[in-house]
Write a structure and sequence with these properties.
The chain is mainly α. It has eight helices and no strands. Helix 3 runs antiparallel to helix 7 and helix 4 crosses helix 5. The chain is globular and about 55 Å long. The N and C termini lie far apart (about 70 Å).
Length: about 200
């Protein structure tokens, strides 16, 4: 019997990110009384402690690396399950929400200076994390579709295992490099910025 290919377009990741960012902004806007006044999100005491704290970059690196690798593995494993696309979409919304929440908190509290604080806080490691995350989500989506949507007779999803693993290895290398930048470069930049904040 001839197998039918299920035509499914790529997941609109940009839309999920945008929805997450908007959700983060809305959350801070309506909850700013609690978040900014009671919870003290990014208050002056927090920035003061960050300004004078001593960071052991080696210990921080292993902590961050373990955390990022755990998320990396969870995404890969979930991509092979039936709910893989839903999970990847949820993760995309979550990261967008985090960006919107953090940046809007900084802006509501410090105005223009808050934008600069937000940029410095994610620089330069997000130059690695952002493309790595996009590529990983696409990899997971492609893996999920090759398992559940594409049939062997269509020729779609027929990518060699070494090719898939090679791409995954490159994503992991970018992730590790991002961890190095986050732990060994960003703390110095952030502390230097806070000296003039």
């Amino acid at each position: 019997m001839e197998q039918i290919h299920v035509a499914c377009g790529k997941t609109p990741a940009a839309l999920f990110v945008f929805d997450g960012i908007c959700g983060g902004i809305v959350c801070v806007y309506f909850g700013r009384g609690i978040l900014l006044n009671r919870a003290g999100m990014l208050d002056e005491d927090t920035l003061y402690r960050m300004k004078y704290m001593t960071v052991d970059s080696s210990i921080l690196f292993w902590y961050v690396l373990c955390k990022r690798c755990r998320n990396f593995l969870v995404l890969i494993i979930m991509a092979t399950t039936y709910l893989g696309l839903i999970f990847c979409g949820g993760v995309t919304v979550k990261y967008g929400f985090s960006v919107g929440f953090f940046l809007s908190t900084a802006v509501f509290r410090y105005g223009i200076k808050g934008i600069l604080l937000g940029i410095v806080s994610i620089f330069p490691h997000y130059l690695c994390y952002l493309p790595a995350m996009i590529l990983l989500l696409r990899w997971c989506e492609d893996m999920h579709r090759s398992i559940y949507f594409y049939h062997n007779t269509t020729g779609q999803g027929k990518k060699s295992l070494p090719g898939r693993l090679g791409k995954l290895a490159l994503i992991w290398i970018a992730l590790v490099f991002g961890c190095l930048l986050e732990c060994f470069v960003n703390p110095a930049l952030l502390k230097g910025f806070l000296q003039f904040f």
